[in-house]
């Protein structure tokens, strides 16, 4: 397993180099790669896909949803530039894999998942794995999580037609959001949205990506 994980990490690192002309990132932050070595992906995939847990592909997790491709997880986590004290939000908890990796780098992660069965399974899995700083909320993440806002960083793990206004509102000045934006069933653009200290924000389009769509408002 360790061997497979190491190979995957090499593939992920090579992916950064291969996409550097789009993203401007030649190398992923070593802390992101270290976090991905700690969070064992085979704990997050269904038994039927275990043999593919350390292959750089998305995998089905039931309910028409997927656990993201490791390279994409690395890229999105890198873009968030998480700091140890950060209070963070993920929309689209799914298996909990991405949230657990954020949990390695931030103080606290709140993840919102709209499919009740996935939210329950995610909560149980994270408890079993002893992940104590990731909190799973069932609901529509396009509304954010007003009771826990504002956030230093927000990661959206499903495609949105446009950036949900509630999420922009719930991002702290100086905060960062990573989100795939575009039409469903086609290629979206992975966007990094940065809010400055005055609350103004700029969006950077980084890479064509393909995500499952956000469900909800
Ligand atoms: N981050 C996940 C990937 C999940 S795929 C992982 O690491 O496994 C996207 C997830 O977003 C799916 O589980 C889907 O059910 C969820 N989702 C879709 N629309 C949502 C919404 N409006 N609010 C919260 N979760 C949503």
Molecular structure report:
With 217 residues, this protein is α/β, with parallel strands linked by helices. The protein has one domain: Rossmann fold (3-Layer(aba) Sandwich), CATH 3.40.50. It is 32% helix and 26% strand. The chain is built from six helices and nine strands; from the N terminus they run H-H-E-E-H-E-H-E-H-E-E-H-E-E-E. The strands form two sheets. Strands 5-4-3-6-7-8-9 form a seven-stranded mixed beta sheet. A hairpin with a 5-residue loop joins strand 8 and strand 9. Helix 1 crosses helix 3. The termini are far apart. Bound molecules: S-adenosyl-L-homocysteine.
Strand and helix map with partners:
Layout: H1 2-23, H2 30-38, E1 59-62, E2 65-67, H3 70-80, E3 87-91, H4 97-105, E4 108-113, H5 116-128, E5 134-138, E6 151-156, H6 165-169, E7 171-181, E8 188-195, E9 201-209
Parallel strand pairs: 3-4, 3-6, 4-5, 6-7
Antiparallel strand pairs: 1-2, 7-8, 8-9
The protein binds S-adenosyl-L-homocysteine.
Residues 65-68, 91-92, 94-95, 97-98, 112-115, 118, 140-142, 157-158, 212, 214-216 line the site of S-adenosyl-L-homocysteine.
């Amino acid at each position: 397993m360790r061997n497979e994980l190491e190979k995957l990490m090499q593939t992920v690192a090579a992916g950064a180099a291969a996409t550097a002309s789009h993203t401007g990132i030649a190398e992923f932050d070593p802390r992101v790669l270290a976090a991905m070595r700690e969070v064992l992906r085979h704990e997050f995939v269904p038994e039927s896909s275990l043999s593919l847990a350390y292959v750089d592909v998305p995998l089905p997790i039931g309910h028409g949803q997927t656990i993201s491709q490791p390279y994409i997880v690395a890229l999105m986590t890198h873009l968030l530039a998480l700091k140890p004290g950060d209070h963070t939000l993920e929309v689209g908890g799914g298996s909990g894999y991405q949230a657990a990796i954020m949990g390695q780098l931030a103080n606290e992660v709140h993840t919102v998942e709209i499919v009740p069965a996935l939210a329950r399974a995610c909560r149980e899995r994270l408890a079993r794995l002893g992940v104590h700083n990731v909190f799973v909320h069932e609901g529509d993440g396009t509304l954010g999580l007003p009771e826990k806002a504002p956030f230093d960083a927000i990661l959206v793990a499903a495609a949105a037609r446009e950036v949900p206004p509630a999420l922009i509102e719930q991002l702290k000045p100086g905060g960062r959001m990573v989100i795939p934006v575009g039409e469903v069933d086609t290629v979206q653009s992975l966007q990094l949205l940065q809010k400055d200290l005055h609350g103004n924000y700029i969006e950077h389009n980084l890479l064509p990506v393909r995500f499952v769509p956000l469900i909800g408002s």
